[in-house]
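We modelled the chain as a single entity of 130 amino acids. Its sequence is:
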Amino acid sequence: MPRRAGAPVRTLDLDPVYNSRLVTQLVNRLMVDGKKSTAERVVYRALDRVGERTGRSPVEVLEQAIKTVTPVLEVRWLVTYSRERREKHMDEKLAGEILDALEQQGGSFKKKDDMYRMAQANKAFAHYRW
């Protein structure tokens, strides 16, 4: 344990294109091996695709998609399940996962639903003393 004071918590900077902390968080979560410019390119292309398909603001769609997948690790689930999709390019995968989460489908929403079902099943047996 270090003798000095703990490291201060750094706040995320706003995204330069959309001025959103959520987009910055998505870029940081998607980044691999410190390649931030590649992750930014993928996220911006995916958000452009989302905006074209829905006709709405991409950040607004992203926020609504994350609210449907809402536990604490929702951004991680979006990135994880978008990497497992079968589209050819990562921006297509991420855009597809965001749109699926918006429509309450896809891997990230299924993960949330499975967690909720397990919590309900465990709650049913909570009164027993083993």
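As a brief sanity check on the tokenised model: The radius of gyration is 18 Å. The chain is about 65% helix and 0% strand.
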